[in-house]
Write a structure and sequence with these properties.
Blueprint: E1 6-10, H1 14-27, E2 32-36, H2 39-48, E3 54-57, H3 68-76, E4 82-86, H4 91-99, E5 104-107, H5 112-123, H6 131-134, H7 142-152, H8 156-166, H9 171-178, H10 182-196, H11 201-209
Parallel strand pairs: 1-2, 1-3, 3-4, 4-5
């Protein structure tokens, strides 16, 4: 007997999670749905459900900024496809999501039947973008792709530290937040700089901010 498909919905807005659940159920009858509302929660969900068939990922959740969460998930869990579902609907954002490893980009403004069709297409192994966007944009630069690969090499804890660096926190503040010693944070920072090929915290933050995406004005990221 074929096992039911399993999809992880990662969005911090309960109402939109409910709408996505409706679209997912329409696309995949009998599907098992796992919900999460932050990057840490979706990583835990992926760890606990390594047999998941798909992650539907919001770009703007606690613990992530723009494409950083996408790149992190693809680096840590390359076997599970990720589709970005976001209110940031600029064409370059959609195309760059695919360049950074997403299997599709679904605008949050899409009707439920379109969302369902997109989910079905990705589960069948296709990439999906809105038709008017799919063939009209340039590829990501080699420099951006290299940085995405470097970022994907970070461990989950190193990624958390880098995220906190971009928020302007000091080592001692990060150590307090993560309940570890300041020496441990210093070691993480050293490893982050080495993996990203930079020489200072400031350079690491500037690099990470390149993957940022402005939240949509509707606040439904």
């Amino acid at each position: 007997m074929q096992l039911a498909q399993k999809i992880i919905i990662a969005d911090d807005h309960p109402l939109f999670r409910a709408a996505l659940k409706q679209a997912v159920t329409q696309a995949v009858p009998g599907v098992e749905i796992v919900e999460s509302d932050s990057l840490e929660a979706v990583q835990a969900a992926v760890d606990n459900h390594s047999d998941a068939d798909l992650v539907l990922l919001d770009l703007h959740m606690p613990g992530t900024n723009g494409f950083t969460g996408l790149v992190f998930l693809r680096g840590q869990n390359p076997g599970i496809p990720v589709v970005v579902v976001s209110g940031s609907e600029e064409p370059y954002v959609m195309k760059r999501a695919l360049d950074y490893g997403a299997s599709g980009f679904i605008p949050k403004s899409s009707p439920l039947d379109v969302i369902a069709d997109a989910i079905s297409a990705v589960l069948e192994g296709e990439e999906w973008l809105p038709q008017e966007i799919a063939d009209s944009l340039d590829d990501v630069t080699e420099e951006d792709q290299k940085f995405a690969n470097d970022l994907a090499s970070l461990t989950p804890q190193q990624f958390r530290v880098l995220t906190m660096l971009t928020e302007g926190l000091l080592n001692k503040q990060i150590a307090y937040e993560l309940n570890v010693s300041e020496a441990t944070i210093k070691a993480h920072v050293t490893a982050i700089l080495r993996k990203l090929g930079v020489h200072s915290r400031t350079q690491a933050v500037i690099q990470a901010q390149r993957l940022g995406v402005e939240p949509p004005k509707t606040e439904l990221g």
